[in-house]
Design goal:
Layout lengths: L1 H22 L3 H26 L9 H26 L10 E4 L8 H4 L9 E2 L3 H9 L5 E6 L5 H14 L7 E6 L10 H12 L12 H7 L3 E6 L6 H14 L6 E6 H10 L9 E5 L4 H11 L8 H8 L13 H12 L14 H16 L17 H17 L16 H26 L4 H26 L19 H42 L8 H30 L7 H35 L4 H28 L1 H14 L7 H11 L2 E4 L2 E4 L2 H8 L19
Parallel strand pairs: 3-6, 3-7, 4-5, 5-6
Antiparallel strand pairs: 1-2, 1-7, 8-9
């Protein structure tokens, strides 16, 4: 604390000395000499301090890693508790899907999996505590969950994760649910991929208080239990690589939970030559019995349901009925619930369908209008807005087609700009930046006494410059706009070590270093200009600038750029420390706030450039003041142009906003797209994993991308009696 106070006092003394010199009889020339002397002293002090500094901390301490693990446990539990509530998993209770050990050919030797004489692993989703106890009893806590589409694999993984966290014992790893659809296809090591995903999805782990290697240490020391969802969503050779990566990179203290469709896992292990997963128990879902389905639906209904419910329940349990076995998975049970049970809709339409496949397709098609019901009184799973059902289906279809074209199940809002041609998006971004620069610079020129005509001309000139440079630069750089790697506010590897040092040292230290760099540039740049002028005279050129004028020009020219860097880094650091960036809507708002703040600074800088430009061209200035005004105008013009490119190329919000406007004008997506996605998650159509959205079930995405009309109804069967 004392060092910070002394540093602040030193800066105040330096600024006061320059101001006093400026107000003396020597004026700006005396101030320039004082600034040059102080700048030289600061440069020397900086070099000496750099030479004498001690080695930086290269590893996180055990206490820091422990604190990071506890924070991760709290964040993961809060995240998936909210997701479980949104899914209604405990209303009234989880569906009792039963799980048993799979065939021996799909798993390792029993002695490698358990220390008991025989391997036992049988439980139900509504008794997840027993399954957690069985998992803890395995040698290495490795479990593979198999099942067909819609059998509840992801739901079981979520229930296991939640119970492991609620009953977490000291020293146990933290389970973290991750989707495998985004696994790198470039041969990235599994441990590196896991560490990168943790750092991306839980940016709080990269805070300075946890040290430089907390995330890496959590992975390498077995303090994380990855719950890997969707091995079947990888290509065949990628599944083989993942199985081999798990077998070759994990140690005896590393565990995992992995979900996959049964057929794809069998293909990977048996037909494609991949080895079984070492020391991993493999369980598979049992088929839901008609009695279990009827009992669960009856428990969700009133004690004496009316309408067509008695007849439907009776026919679902009748082995001789065409509807028998039509609702036999966790997915179809959920679709019945959200389509008919929760909104209180009579299921008469189901009684008219001819077979099980017709029921499944109808339930998938009926899910969209049911989930977007406008009546908010129906419960917390319904949307807050009255989105029109027909448009909602069209919008969801576009999103599903976009995901399918990119071979992924995860929807990242910052990547939706890919839906629109890149040239159209970059043109919109350049136009927005140019308009803001034109209005601001013209206003600054007018405020300095310029007439309306000249103000408009100056604004148009700067606006065209910014628009053209931004458009051309972004047309090549926009492909890197991402929260993951293109100057992402959560990824500081893209900045050099000097800027990272500013971030980690705090705003005061950053300001001190920026001041030192500015002083050095002023002295060296001014000296270079002055020396160049002397060389020009020796070659027969015009009279050179005086040393004071050269230093004034270099100082004013470099000052805007040096001020812009710590301000931009301060905003990035502020957003980096905001814990709510875990959610998609929060990350969107955070980036929007950053964009608006940068836009305000950008507009202010353009206005100052216009104001100083008017002084430079209209006022009768001479000497160092004239050189400083000219340097400031040039420096600000260069800075604001570079700032526009920096903001658009490193912050995803502007490109996303332009994309939303373009898609809304073409009626392809709603203008308030984030509100729409948030409502679809609240309604149950989408699920949330970190900052990403996914369709609640892969079957929903697949159905939207290949829609076919539901089969025509057949006459009802009046001869069958309803259940008593």
């Amino acid at each position: 604390m004392l060092r910070k106070l002394l540093a602040g006092l030193a800066i105040a003394v330096i600024v006061a000395s320059i101001v006093l010199a400026w107000s003396s009889s020597g004026g700006l020339e005396a101030a320039s000499w004082v600034a040059a002397v102080i700048g030289a002293a600061v440069v020397v002090a900086t070099i000496v301090g750099w030479a004498r500094r001690g080695p930086a901390l290269t590893m996180s301490t055990p206490e820091q890693v422990e604190a990071a693990q506890q924070l991760l446990a709290d964040r993961v539990l809060r995240q998936w508790e909210e997701e479980a509530k949104a899914r209604g998993l405990f209303t009234p209770a989880p569906l009792a899907v039963r799980w048993r050990l799979s065939e021996p050919g799909l798993m390792d030797h029993a002695r490698h999996i358990t220390s008991d004489e025989r391997l036992h692993f049988k439980a139900a989703a509504d008794q997840v505590g027993e399954m957690v106890a069985a998992l803890r009893g395995l040698r290495r806590r490795r479990l593979v969950v198999l099942g067909e589409a819609g059998t509840g694999k992801t739901t079981l993984a979520l229930l296991l994760l939640r119970r492991l966290l609620l009953d977490r014992e000291p020293g146990e790893p933290v389970p973290v649910l991750l989707t495998l659809s985004g696994w790198e296809r470039s041969g990235e090591q599994f441990s590196s991929w896991l560490a990168r995903r943790l750092a991306r999805d839980y940016p709080e782990l990269r805070a300075e208080e946890f040290g430089p290697t907390a995330v890496k240490d959590l992975v390498e020391r077995g303090r994380v239990l990855p719950v890997l969802d969707g091995l079947d969503e990888l290509l065949v050779h990628e599944r083989n690589l993942m199985v081999r990566a798990l077998n070759t990179t994990l140690t005896d203290r590393d565990g995992f939970v992995l979900t996959c469709r049964s057929a794809e896992f069998r293909e990977t292990v048996k037909e494609q030559g991949a080895h079984v997963l070492s020391a991993a128990a493999v369980i598979e879902s049992e088929e839901l019995g008609a009695g279990e389905v009827v009992g669960y639906l009856a428990s969700c209904l009133p004690p004496e349901p009316g309408g067509s419910w008695p007849e439907l329940l009776h026919r679902l349990g009748d082995p001789d009925d065409v509807l028998y076995g039509s609702i036999d998975t966790a997915l179809t049970v959920w679709l019945v619930r959200v389509g008919y049970v929760d909104p209180g809709t009579d299921p008469a339409r189901l009684l008219e369908l001819p077979d099980a496949e017709s029921v499944r397709l109808h339930l998938l098609d009926h899910a969209v209008p049911a989930l977007v019901a406008a009546d908010s009184a129906l419960g917390p799973l319904r949307s807050r807005r009255a989105w029109p059902a027909r448009r909602v289906r069209r919008w969801l279809t576009l999103l599903a087609e976009f995901l399918t074209s990119w071979e992924t199940r995860s929807l990242a809002w910052w990547e939706l700009y890919r839906v629109v041609p890149r040239g159209t998006v970059t043109a919109g971004l350049g136009l927005a930046a140019g308009l803001l620069a034109a209005v601001s610079a013209g206003a600054g020129w007018w405020a300095a006494g310029g007439d309306p005509g000249s103000s408009a001309a100056v604004g148009a000139g700067l606006g065209l410059l910014v628009c053209a440079v931004s458009g051309v630069a972004l047309s090549r750089e926009l492909a890197a706009v991402s929260l993951d790697d293109a100057g992402d506010i959560l990824e500081f590897e893209d900045f050099d070590e000097f800027e990272v040092g500013e971030l980690r040292s705090g705003l005061l230290t950053g300001a001190m270093r920026a001041f030192a760099a500015w002083a050095a540039l002023s002295v060296l740049g001014g000296g270079g200009l002055w020396a160049s002028g002397l060389l020009g005279v020796w070659l027969g050129g015009a009279s050179p600038l005086s040393l004071a004028d050269a230093v004034a020009f270099a100082s004013a020219f470099s000052l805007p750029m040096l001020l812009a860097v710590p301000l931009a880094m301060a905003f990035l650091l502020w957003l980096h420390r905001v814990s709510v960036l875990l959610r998609p809507a929060a990350s969107y708002r955070g980036q929007g706030l950053l964009t608006l703040a940068l836009a305000g600074l950008f507009a202010a800088a353009c206005a100052i450039a216009g104001w100083l430009g008017a002084l430079f061209f209209r006022a009768e200035l001479d000497g160092a003041l004239h050189a400083a005004a000219g340097g400031a105008v040039g420096g600000i013009a260069v800075t604001v142009t570079a700032a526009a490119v920096f903001a658009f190329a490193n912050v995803a919000w502007p490109a996303f906003t332009v994309t939303c406007v373009l898609l809304a004008l073409s009626r392809r997506l709603p203008l308030r797209l984030m509100a729409f996605l948030r409502d679809m998650h609240r309604a149950g159509m989408l699920r949330q994993t970190g900052r990403l959205y996914q369709f609640r079930h892969a079957a929903l995405q697949d159905r939207l991308t290949a829609p076919t009309p539901s089969p025509a109804p057949v006459p009802r069967q009046p001869e069958r009696d309803a259940a008593p």
